[in-house]
Fold this sequence. Notes:
Layout: H1 15-27, E1 34-39, E2 43-44, E3 50-51, E4 54-58, H2 79-83, E5 89-95, E6 98-107, E7 110-113, H3 114-128
Antiparallel strand pairs: 1-4, 2-3, 5-6, 6-7
Amino acid sequence: MSFPGGKIEKGDANPCASAVRETREEIGLDRSHIEPIGYLDLYMTTLGYRIVPVIARVKPGFQLQLNKAEVDATFEVPLAFLMDQTNVQRHSREWQGMTRHYYAIPYGERYIWGVTAGILRNLYDRIYR
């Protein structure tokens, strides 16, 4: 489970342009519905990927066209639910001989965890701390 995203390509003017392009390519969300707000702090993954999270408002009335080679389904979660820290869990597990800690946010039948939940936690920290 993840946000749309991918590698910044040579023709992308900046990380925001890359995020908008990837969103169109992966879920078919037209640029006219995206209102970029800004960036969160750089997010480093355990595997060494550097992610530049882009925050945007999405205007209602959009239609999605999923790229089935990359995306199985989409769903929405209220921001208030994601920002309510009683819904956020912290877990750990052994991976490659080390204990790794990660966040998880169960939502109905969905389970948001790992990098996606970590980015949401960073959003919480930016807003409330």
